[in-house]
Write a structure and sequence with these properties.
Blueprint: E1 6-12, H1 18-29, E2 37-42, H2 46-55, E3 62-66, H3 73-83, E4 88-92, E5 96-98, H4 102-109, E6 115-126, E7 154-156, E8 164-168, H5 169-175, H6 194-205, E9 210-223, H7 230-251, H8 253-256, H9 258-280, H10 286-313, H11 326-330
Parallel strand pairs: 1-2, 1-4, 2-3, 6-9
Antiparallel strand pairs: 4-8, 5-9, 6-8, 7-9
Helix pairs in contact: 5-6, 6-7, 7-10, 9-10
């Protein structure tokens, strides 16, 4: 059995990230295990669509296409899946760059036919040049990165993280695509968890499915200055609580919060204790990190409670799961 073919999907939405988008594509085209194709899916931005189509009009392995569904990251990913040709579909954030062996480590993970998804490790690139002293590593998921508390090495997990992930094509045939109405929508409230919901749905559709994280599959993700501020931290953790309520509504609180219970009962208390210990020893930021962990938990809990109440009262946001139709994705091609 040879190396599986891999299509890479990069969803984009704003010209403000033009340089980042070009860097992301360049990192894919420089892989030691070449991608079959790179698909740039533009989220309802005609100006960006046209500009990218011109940029890559003579590049055979880069396809630029419009999001064929409603606005948002989930529909963009579904459009990319539908238009792709690879046996494996990998996803890369538009403000990230992949290390040279990223796809090789992903492809190696699929030697076992039971493996349906492989994720990797995402390292932050702070706009200020360094991590804010108050920002706890346990909350790096706030900025789309691998956080302290995730297992290291090549390990089985409940879900992969969407900005650095791959799926076997047959996973989408079994479980459907990403749920629309639950994930990111440009610069609106930073909801998430669409990959968590998909992975749980996949495991239910295929009980024998294996989902892995291989931390050798590394990407580097830009963290803009605005996301280094506590205001964003608080907003993002609150939004995560709202998102978790939607996931729990879909798949049940037992599975939907399985990993979160271990995280909040073991990882976060240890982080608070470490921060307080650093404070006592006079190390910079110790008290701030401990306080940020407590504030993050409180904000997420508040979002979850409100989201659960809205779900029970019928006033919450709704989301839907779509089947992947390859003909739909191909209609959006622009280059």
């Amino acid at each position: 059995m040879g190396t599986p073919s891999v299509s890479v999907v990069i969803c984009v939405y704003t010209e403000d990230r033009w340089g980042d988008i070009l860097d992301a594509v360049a990192s894919v085209r420089a892989q030691s295990c070449p991608a079959l194709e790179t698909l740039l899916v533009v989220d309802h931005n005609p100006a960006l669509l046209g500009r990218l189509a011109m940029e890559f009009k003579e590049v055979a392995d880069v396809l630029v296409l419009a999001n064929a569904g409603p606005r948002g990251l989930s529909a963009g990913r579904n459009t990319g899946i539908a238009a792709s040709r690879g046996e494996i579909i990998a996803f890369l954030d538009d403000d990230a760059v992949a290390e040279r062996d990223w796809l090789r480590h992903f492809a190696d993970g699929y030697a076992d036919p039971k493996v349906m998804a492989v994720g990797g490790r995402t390292e932050p690139i702070w706009a200020s040049g360094r991590r804010p002293v108050w920002f706890p590593e346990e909350f790096d998921w706030v900025v789309g990165c691998t956080y302290k508390g995730l297992p290291r090495g090549k390990v089985r997990v409940r879900n992969v993280l969407g900005g650095n992930a791959s799926f076997r094509r047959t996973a989408f045939a079994a479980a459907g695509g990403f749920a629309t109405g639950i994930g990111r929508d440009g610069d609106k409230r930073p909801l998430g968890c669409e990959e968590t919901e998909l992975c749980i749905r996949l495991s239910r559709a295929r009980p024998d499915a294996v989902l892995l994280i291989d931390d050798r599959a590394v990407i580097h993700h830009r963290v803009p200055a605005g996301r280094e501020r506590f205001a964003y931290f608080r907003t993002r953790t609150y939004a995560e609580g709202l998102s978790k309520a939607l996931v729990a509504r879909s798949v049940g609180a037992g599975k939907g919060l399985e990993s979160e219970r271990a995280y909040t009962s073991r990882v976060l208390p240890a982080g608070v204790a470490r921060g307080l210990r650093d404070f006592v020893r006079g190390r910079a930021g110790g008290a701030g990190r401990a306080g940020a962990i407590v504030a993050g938990v409180a904000a997420a809990a508040g979002g979850y409670v409100l989201g659960s109440f809205r779900a029970r009262s019928g006033g919450s946001a709704t989301f839907s799961v779509v089947e992947i139709d390859r003909s739909e994705g191909e209609t959006g091609a622009a280059a």
